[in-house]
Specification:
two-stranded parallel ribbon, 9 strands, Rossmann fold, seven-stranded mixed sheet, Nucleotide-binding universal stress UspA family protein, UspA, 2 domains, alpha/beta, Rossmann-like_a/b/a_fold
């Protein structure tokens, strides 16, 4: 929590995720925060007391909505990205909010982007709404490393009782390094069939573990990815993407890639970014104690 206007909604989302995953909730705040709105500083200069008040109010809000949820708080001092990255090594999920000016600034902010690439656990970014209906949408990679992301998405869809939409983006020949794609008669149809086959193969092993999760498959070229993200964000309840060696889908989501800079302005549903080394289904303590400085 940083004390911005999105703090109450982010607390609600984090508490709901903790209940869904049957995990305790740790509310962390890196001082000094922004302290806007009801959390604004009582004095001319922000003090640690403002941070403690923010944590107390946030914990009370979480317990009010989920009385049986174990809630703890911790006030940290240091760089937000660095401290939260350390916390991620002890967590099942890190929940952060998009910056307040989401409609005027297209990127998520440096902390969320840093966590996306260096965090040890999945990162959920709250972007103003938490729909209770709609499918879970996953960016499905045909690479072996994409199995982690698919497993996470299937598990989330099963927990929510929703369907799963698997989106696979293929890069047109000649467009990966920038030059205009070569136009070959019938080439689009061939590329689409190859992409659909790769997507089907990637999903083949997941039907048995999750027989009750309906699956819809969607293969799109990179040119259509911005529009696809926009529609998925408006109609889905959760977007899931992996952070791998390429990770173009995830980068488009948080605004570091040009083609999606108009699409991310309207993203509404939360987004989960899954690190490549994450082991889905392996229980990890949500909190293992105070964050200690790395040994010299």
């Amino acid at each position: 929590m940083d004390g911005s206007r999105t703090t109450p909604a982010t607390v609600d989302l984090a508490a709901a995720e903790a209940v869904r995953h049957r995990a305790p909730l740790l509310i962390a705040h890196v001082w000094p925060g922004r302290y806007t709105g009801v959390f604004r500083s009582r004095g001319a200069v922000a003090s640690p007391a403002d941070g403690r008040r923010l944590l107390d109010v946030s914990a009370q809000r979480a317990q009010l909505g989920s009385p049986d949820l174990p809630v703890s708080t911790e006030l940290l001092d240091g760089g937000a990205a660095d401290m939260l990255t350390r916390l991620s090594g002890r967590a099942q999920l890190i929940v952060v909010a998009h910056r307040d000016d989401a409609l005027t600034r297209v990127s998520w902010g440096s902390t969320a982007a840093y966590l996306a690439h260096y965090g040890a656990c999945p990162v959920l970014v709250h972007r103003g709404a938490a729909p209770s209906a709609g499918p879970v949408v996953v960016a499905a990679s045909a690479r072996p490393t994409g199995a982690t992301t698919l497993g996470y998405a299937f598990a989330e869809a099963a927990m929510r009782g929703s369907s799963l939409v698997a989106v696979h983006m293929w890069t047109r020949r000649g467009s990966e390094d920038g030059p205009r794609p070569a136009v070959v008669a019938g080439g689009y149809s061939v590329e689409r069939r190859e992409a659909e086959r790769a997507l089907a193969e990637a999903l083949a092993g997941w039907a048995a573990p999750y027989p009750h999760v309906p699956i819809d498959r969607l293969a799109v070229p990179d040119l259509d990815m911005g529009y696809t993200i926009e529609r998925a964000s408006q109609r889905g309840r959760l977007l899931v993407a992996g952070i791998g060696r390429h990770g173009r889908f995830a980068e488009w989501l948080y605004g570091s890639a040009g083609p999606s800079r108009t699409a991310v302005r309207v993203v509404a549903c939360p987004v989960v970014l899954v690190p490549g080394g994450w082991q889905a289904g392996v229980p990890v303590p949500a909190y293992g104690g105070p964050v200690a400085a790395d040994p010299a």
